[in-house]
Design a protein that fits this description.
73% of the residues lie in helices and 0% in strands. The protein has 195 residues and is mainly alpha-helical.
């Protein structure tokens, strides 16, 4: 179980970094489109099941008094994975496939990730659930792991509020550090190394 949890959490950390680097390069204009979106959506699609599996392992390894917190986190992780997987598979399998050949007309409802686009709202809801998942599991851990989970969990507020104020994306950017850090610390936890 610990090996499974370690590799799931480590994979979640790697996938989140794999998303974060192209995201930064996209914002700075260093990646051409649509390559930028392929490089963002592909690791994001991988991140979802890795995060769920890491929290499933955390639940399975929990003492009885910790299980409710970890089960609540796992439930939110499942919601996150379901929502964002729908978004990313549509981006990779439909939207980005049609754009280069000029067939994107009529698929505007599937577009992501701009203000007031339906799949953007679903993506933001998914990441709100992800943050809530880390907030729920935080009390069942100790030390630095607990606090990185809490910090990531508090990002649920600016993430969700981007539905109304897109500029709050800047308030949510600490996710690029807090989430991978919490997953790396969780991977260490599964190895019996407390931070």
């Amino acid at each position: 179980m610990n090996r499974f949890g370690h590799w799931s959490a480590a994979a979640a950390a790697v996938a989140s970094i794999g998303y974060g680097v192209p995201q930064i390069l996209q914002v700075t204009g260093m990646l051409p489109t649509p390559l930028d979106r392929f490089l963002i959506f592909a690791p994001s699609l991988l991140l979802a099941p890795c995060f769920v599996l890491a929290l499933a392992a955390a639940y399975e390894s929990a003492a009885r008094e910790q299980r409710i917190w970890r089960l609540a986190g796992l439930a939110c992780a499942l919601l996150y994975a379901g929502f964002v997987s729908v978004v990313y598979v549509n981006q990779l399998g439909v939207v980005l496939q049609r754009e280069p050949v000029g067939e994107s007309r009529g698929f505007e409802l599937l577009a992501c990730c701009g203000f007031r686009q339906p799949l953007t709202a679903i993506d933001l809801l998914g990441y709100t659930y992800m943050s809530l998942a880390t907030l729920f599991v935080a009390p069942s851990f100790r030390g630095l792991l607990r606090w990185t989970l809490v910090l990531n969990g508090l990002l649920a507020v600016p993430i969700f509020l981007q539905l109304f104020w897109p500029a709050l994306i800047w308030a949510a950017t600490p996710w690029l550090v807090t989430f991978p850090a919490s997953m790396l610390l969780l991977a260490r936890h599964f190895n019996g190394i407390e931070a």
